[in-house]
Amino acid sequence: MIVLSKEKLPIQREQDVVLFRNRIKELATKIGMSLVNQTKLITAASELVRNMLRYGGGGITHLEIVSRNSIPGVRLIFVDEGPGIKDVTLAMKDGYSTGKSLGLGLPGAKRLVNEFDIKSESGKGTTVTIIRWKNGL
Amino acid sequence: MNKESAAALKSKKKQILENWLSNQLQDAALRDDLMSVAELQQQSEEFLTALIKAFGTSSAEDTDSEGYEPIRDILNEISISRARQGFSPRETSSYILSLKEVLSNVLEDRFKEDPATLYREIISMNKIMDSLSMVTMETYIKGREEVILRQTNEMSEISTPVIRVWEGILALPIIGTLDSARTQVVMEALLEEIVATGSRIAILDISGVPTVDSLVAQHLIKTVSAARLMGAECIISGIRAEIAQTIVHLGIDLTNIYTKATLASALKMSFSMLNIQVTRATGTSQNNKQNFGF
Known about the structure:
Chain B: It comes from Rufibacter roseus. The structure holds 2 protein chains of 2 kinds. Chain A is α+β, with helices and mostly antiparallel strands. Chain A is built from 4 helices and 5 strands, in the order βααββααββ. A 5-stranded antiparallel beta sheet of chain A has the order 1-2-3-5-4, covered by helices on one side. The radius of gyration of chain A is 14 Å and the shape is globular. Chain B has 2 domains: 3-155, Globin-like; 163-278, 2-Layer Sandwich (Transcription Regulator spoIIAA). Chain B is elongated, with a radius of gyration of 33 Å. The interface between A and B is medium-sized, with 24 and 19 residues.
């Protein structure tokens, strides 16, 4: 996998979410992603960035255009230094939420992207990496 | 700044004003479309009078001191009004910086024989003018921020109209991102209107919502539940193809809520729920034209 471009965007307030989503849309449009794939990627990113704000107290997002076997895609990395997730397996279950939300953020985001990786250490923070390829496969 | 230079500047006031004005008028950045020359002249004279008076006081170098209060007031007024009128930062700051050159020339004439004093006085004058120019910039930015703040407030106010589309049917077009604060405004406006009009059906149109994630969905579900408690049924319309697919993948359950792709089909559905029949009038098009008063 080759990284074609990368940039960073800090997320501290709710207003940053809109800016972040618009930036992803620009990147996805640039590689010619279809509208459905774009919407899936943006929605997944929106879920993760909201989690980051709500539970992680904000953090940094990395936006990258990557390429594998000459198929382009968008990779997003969400890094926060919040309290971390105690039980990742449980958090990935549908309907589980420590807040009062629907509990669909993490599992839903996973279903909306092609590759999903979550690392969390209690007390040190959480890092989530997602990739969605242009062709959606 | 010593007494001699203050006195020199005072005696040359007329000349300073003249040169300063001609400097400003020569500047390519001068916006005579935004401000008349007469206005500029009056503003500059007022400012210069106050500045020369402040130079004469004992604490001339401290721009935070009392003597500078009228000057700071004038500067604040000038930069705020310029920020609102749409001057650029460069245009605004060149106002005070163009005076610097004129003042240096006068001081140079006065202390031609005494370079050491000239140097000291120029430095001291520079210091004052620089800190005044910072005041200008600070207020300029404040003025701009006020404009932005006002626009933000206006935007959140106009963004949630509740429309009465038919007797007993309300429509609420939601545009933009639906965050917690917006949901609160939307929900309040809708519930109030349901009470005021006694409507039985409310159509929430989300055509203008770019992203529907689980938080937005949760807010929508809450709004629908609240409306139901008041005896009104909700229909969510404007669900685009890509949003429908995304909602399914996310696993959001909207099966208990009526949803439609377009506002038109939602309206049609509300008609049948209220047993209203809309039929095309029979007769010639000529008759229809008369009916509409053409």
